[in-house]
Automatic annotation (TrEMBL):
<feature type="transmembrane region" description="Helical">
    <location>
        <begin position="139"/>
        <end position="159"/>
    </location>
</feature>
<feature type="domain" description="Major facilitator superfamily (MFS) profile">
    <location>
        <begin position="87"/>
        <end position="513"/>
    </location>
</feature>
<keyword id="KW-0812">Transmembrane</keyword>
<dbReference type="GO" id="GO:0016323">
    <property type="term" value="C:basolateral plasma membrane"/>
</dbReference>
<protein>
    <recommendedName>
        <fullName>Solute carrier family 22 member 7</fullName>
    </recommendedName>
</protein>
<keyword id="KW-0813">Transport</keyword>
<feature type="transmembrane region" description="Helical">
    <location>
        <begin position="192"/>
        <end position="212"/>
    </location>
</feature>
<comment type="similarity">
    <text>Belongs to the major facilitator (TC 2.A.1) superfamily. Organic cation transporter (TC 2.A.1.19) family.</text>
</comment>
<feature type="transmembrane region" description="Helical">
    <location>
        <begin position="252"/>
        <end position="271"/>
    </location>
</feature>
<keyword id="KW-1003">Cell membrane</keyword>
<dbReference type="GO" id="GO:0008514">
    <property type="term" value="F:organic anion transmembrane transporter activity"/>
</dbReference>
<feature type="transmembrane region" description="Helical">
    <location>
        <begin position="405"/>
        <end position="424"/>
    </location>
</feature>
<dbReference type="GO" id="GO:0006811">
    <property type="term" value="P:monoatomic ion transport"/>
</dbReference>
<keyword id="KW-0472">Membrane</keyword>
<dbReference type="InterPro" id="IPR036259">
    <property type="entry name" value="MFS_trans_sf"/>
</dbReference>
<dbReference type="Pfam" id="PF00083">
    <property type="entry name" value="Sugar_tr"/>
</dbReference>
<keyword id="KW-0406">Ion transport</keyword>
Amino acid sequence: MKFEDLLLEIGGFGRFQILILFILCLPRINLPMHFLLHNFLAATPSHHCAIPHQEAFVNLTMEEVLLISIPREPDGTFRSCEMFSQPQFHLLLNSSLQPENNSIIQHCQHGWVYDDSQFTSTISTQWDLVCEQRGLNQATATFFFIGVTMGAVVFGYLSDRFGRKAMLLLSLVCSVIFGMLSAASVSYSMLAILRTLTGVALSGVSLIVLPLGMEWVDIQHRTFSGILTSIFWSIGNMLLAMVAYLVREWHWLLVAVTGPCLLSIVCLWWVPESARWLIANGKVKQAHRHLLRCARMNGRKDFAEDVPLTTYAQRIVLQWQHKKPGGSYSYISLFRTPVLRKISLCSGAVWFGVAFSYYGMSMNLTGFGLNMYLSQFVFGVIEIPAKMIMYVVMNRAGRRQSQAWALILTGLCIGANVIIPKPFTSLRSVVAIMGKGFSEAAFTAVFLYTSELYPTVLRQNGMGYTSFVARLGGALAPLVFLLDEVWRSLPEVTYCGVAVCCGSVAFLLPETLNAHLPEGIEDVE
């Protein structure tokens, strides 16, 4: 007897499952508010070198002071990172003259002056993370994703060992603690460490929410539940744009995006532990209690009273134990058998490509042709129809084809914008919108697809491993922007190449459409 058979008897998708899914969607909203927070937390407003006051400047306007103190770019704008060693008063007579000797140009010596019309303060303006320190600014996102990477390994193992719900609660509590402490950072080092720890904590939320919901849902509604929870990621995207628009000071912005975790902690009280996990670990009495509650909420009261669920559960336990080769499972188990090894290697490559291209696009708001708040909001809006279409396509064309082509088309859209000339802004915007839609479709598919590929006894280990690889992609994505100093289009070419190659790897994975979730390793092999 399989768990799906028992689930159908007590209601595979009723009020019980709907309640669980909506509660689990609350922490899902909070994830993008932290994962994409770098766009606003570390935003760099326009800036120029600070000019020390001199008596000779008394009768000059600010524009004239800048004219004689800071060299210009070819387009006429003032340079952000350089200044004249001595005021060039002759430029007041003819501003089109260029300095005859570049030796009079030097790096900023007295700090920077920032345009505060858009941001009251960001970490860039707080600690002058510009020019030579630009790399540290981009590294803030990398530190966060390094934390998420480490958290994927930790929470993937712990949730298989100690249960989904307990680890989700621990993850949310730690997210609140580290998030609030981040807002109180007094140095860049302190912020970097606390953002890394916040990433570790939030990784548990990202990793556990979807499998916990899906393990309570029948086969027919599995895709729907995966799409539903991912839609709330898009809602979080849109909420981030609105919160960032209202809160322009980085300390309070961190508080604003961390606070909702408290609501998730309270609501988690009504979410039961996964009955699949309880039965797989021999905790039949606890599973029986939750299954009984499910049957009653779904209107199967007669079934709950007449049929001994414990007997069903014990039969499933005996069946799983018969399949289980003995000993506990770990990440090494993902590579011990041939089919699982192939699944793990291929899914790891796909996850890397999905995350690398998704965060590469999501962290390039200024290249979208709109202001960054509107870009963030539009990116969130675009994702919802992409998920809806993916819901239909995955159920018609299958998981494998949907996953592969969504990621390949993401790469092709990114590559197309390298070729399309800059003056064609409307066309570039349309292609960028399409690319973002395909990127989100690929991310939606990979969460659902991966959770169907791994057996119950290894599902969280599998999700932990693939999430680990994905976060490596997320950690590298913001650093790739620094390659524009080598060649302006090199970042986009890199994102394009990785997405197309990793998308092609998805064709090597098995199809899981309408298949039972595997319970043991033998089911996969």
